[in-house]
Design brief:
Elements: H1 2-14, H2 21-31, H3 37-40, H4 50-70
Helix pairs in contact: 1-2
């Protein structure tokens, strides 16, 4: 959902598709350095600004990839699974 919304926003900025209300809200969120509402409806809860949220999101994805690849880890990042 994040990737597809970013692709749609790029197209809207270029004028290839209509800038919908949701895309405009997402664009405005980026200007304010906030996580777009569209993303917060699907992602984990967080009060972090966009840059910190993005870094945390990537770390969580890396953790889950490692968990899947290794099947069993020596330790688990518990706060990646829940809102601390």
């Amino acid at each position: 959902m994040i990737k597809s919304s970013l692709v749609e926003l790029q197209k809207a900025i270029k004028g290839l598709v209509l800038m919908s209300m949701g895309l405009e809200m997402m664009y405005n969120s980026f200007l304010l350095k906030k996580v777009p509402v569209l993303w917060t409806k699907k992602a984990y809860l967080s009060l972090k600004p966009l840059s910190s949220w993005s870094e945390d999101f990537i770390q969580r994805l890396d953790f889950f990839d490692e968990w899947i690849a290794k099947d069993k880890l020596d330790s688990y990042w518990v706060s990646a699974l829940f809102f601390p």
